[in-house]
Predict the structure of AsnC family transcriptional regulator.
Amino acid sequence: MSELQLKVLELLKEDARRDAELIATMLGVSLEEVKSAIAELENNHVIVKYATVVNWSKVDDEKVTALIEVQITPERGRGFEGIAERIYLYPEVKSVYLMSGAYDLLVEIEGKNLKEVASFVSNKLSPIDAVLSTKTFFILKKYKQDGIIFEEHEGDHRLMVSP
């Protein structure tokens, strides 16, 4: 990957709405170089989607997010891949990570309410033959996601003390 592509990725990661012309100006390169770099990154699936980070606590239609630790028995010849694929194909699953440590997969899901999340775990996830155990954690509040701080924090209001 070229240095230009890395710089373009960083700028798009900060704000995916930046257009190629602005990026070219910021990097001091031609518009064609930036368009070519972006096209190549998209074609090689380095850039897979342009997304919006939503602070759901500010929206009436608040969602319930849960993280589920999953212990599994790997499949012969495929390891964790087949089971991970089976899990990530469910529409309520937002992320699946292979982990080191006490469990094998970390699954992030979203539901309309606690009951919907519980139903997913008991009716879809747990019955998978390779799943040995699950442990579910509900996210109560998000302070920061994808580098974005959700809450407006107050500055330090203490008075300065001088000797």
